Amino acid sequence: MTALQPARNPQNSFMRHLIHLLCTLCLIPFAAADPRPNIVVILADDLGFSDLGCYGSTVPTPHLDALAANGLRFTDVHNIPRCVPSRAALLTGLHPHQAGVGLIDRHARPRRSNNTLNENCVTIAEVLRAAGYTTLMTGKWHVGDDEGHHPPDRGFDRYWGSPRGGGFYFKDAMLRLDREIYFNREKIDPPDDLYVTDDFTDHAIDFVTEAVTETKKPFFLFIAHIAPHWPLQAKPEEIARFEGHFDHGWDVERQRRFANQKELGIIPAHSALSERDPQAKPWEEKTEKQRADLAHRMEIYTAQVDALDRNVGKLVARLKELGRFKNTLIVFLSDNGCSAEGGPGGFNRGEEGAPLGTALSYASAGLEWANVSNTPFRKFKISTFQGGTATPFIAHWPDGIEARGEIRRQPGHIIDLMPTFIEISGATYPENFAGNTITPMQGQSLAPFFRGDAKPPARDFFWKHLDNKAVRRGHWRAVRSDNPPWQLFDLSVDPTETTDLATE
Known about the structure:
With about 500 residues, the chain is of the alpha/beta class. It contains 14 helices and 17 strands. The protein has a single domain (about 35-460), classed as Alkaline Phosphatase, subunit A. A hairpin with a 6-residue loop joins strand 16 (about 475-480) and strand 17 (about 485-490). Helix 7 packs parallel to helix 10 (about 290-320) and helix 9 packs parallel to helix 11 (about 365-375).
């Protein structure tokens, strides 16, 4: 177990900042004894491929853009197209059914009742803790709802967050959904001014500060944000920053993002923008009242993305103060594509009269804006088309990645994080753990691509969620959605999956 002492009262923000200052002053003369890198994974929830400035958004995300400018952007990394199986795959290096969360697939056997990781897998935290790392997590867990299956039971020395999932940003919203915040194994009454994107980052910073000041071991930090998953909830002053930004509508916004992506080199110049989703109508066909409501929804969504970016900046600043920034690998990605839940126009299931964006509102941005967020791809979260599986993926590590601002086009998968971290940390993936036989990890390390090794090893990729399936071999990708015939795409000439070649 960790040598860390019991944490101070996590609600006392004044003491938190005072301790940060004192710890920073104390750290100045000392250097870390262990040369292995610290590892930070920042996971967004339902973030689309084009929602960051460095991936084409018309709204800058300056802190994540800075990490991209001084690190690497991957353009062909994929997740599982839904949050629970994607988190299981990330944490274990296995396909989600192997890790025991097949309940979200109604055909899985055996069926499970609570999305719980099984005993034949190990988490990154369990592997790295055995290798001498301090292991820290804040945010949404969602792969073990019941007590006894929370992050402290799966290798994390410190945890602050919501084990049962997201769906809230403010305290009133948390209470309305009967969600809970835990500190390690203890339920916590969070402060009345809770905003979870800030809160998860503040406690991550607390944990890192504590780890650095009380141990010379490297740390692994996993921040699993709720943002920007629905419901649309953000601070009024942050929403106001984007007033009017989307009045031009989704058709213009998709074209602008697509042009940005070509200019940035995110997609090849020969790529075609996928057509507007068949369920999405042209912006001009909406009434003035509808356009005002729909544009406002995207303003709130963007405020949630902006809050996520701002908090990345807070963490980076703290790592620099602690002298740990240069030897910390920071990986940023999303758990699946942007969500079209609510269909065209989105849903609004909040309390009657509650303005959109407030704690008692409960709305989604809608299918049309999700189509924008997933530019240039078709489809959304849950689908195995690339709109459901493609993720922005940033890797930043000044001491370990020489390249600055380069793009990597080698294909990768969320299951590749486990072998990547094992390679750079020197940890060992076990054959047995806690008396159980462990399923061999399925991914391949991305570390060679950090070094610029151009040729990826031959491998196949697989996706299955509900009745949605996909398989990829080389530049060929076959997709089947809800049991229609399989479609086949040649990604070398058609990276956005617009031309079905199955009959040929």
